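Revision sheet: structure tokens.
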Amino acid sequence: PAAPATDDDFPGGRFGRQWQWTANPREGWVTRHSGDGLRPVCVRSADAHDLRRLPNVLTQRLPGRTVAVEVDLVLHAGAPGARAGLAVLGDAYGWIGLQRGTDGQVHLVHRFAEAAAASERDAGHPRHAPDGRARLRIEAGAGARCRFLADVGDGFRPSGQVFAATPWRWVGALLGLFAAAPAGRGHAGAADFTLFRITVL
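Predicted:
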């Protein structure tokens, strides 16, 4: 049988059958539109600091071979703390993406949480993302060891240490796309993910 599709252009804002949410989906998590690209809303949650507790992470299996995973991200969110990114999700997890700071600027951030940790912490130094956009890349190799990289207009640069992905629950390690914001009032904004690609290395 053919391998399941992994690349996705998200035509009309829809995602392919290789994806599934981490919990039962709700209306309003994703905005439909006429172009290409996934447009998730930055859903407000008191659990925004822990991806394992968010229901609105869109996931697919981490391939069991050496691959590079890439996606373009633009953050359209004005709420402080609103963030979106590309994650490797397991009992421990890591993600790289964009976050709106309390200074009003958008920063490239790289975070991780160990299996027993209640919240995440920085895995790499935050960097200014002047256009509120980035090309994100995760290189997953033997033993599900993952390197995180990002390009905010100055070429791909590695971030943080190598992260060993761990299985999550009974499904193994997952790739995830998410948009979230801290609890609060009002619309936090949204993100655009485009050109999701998985390349065998």
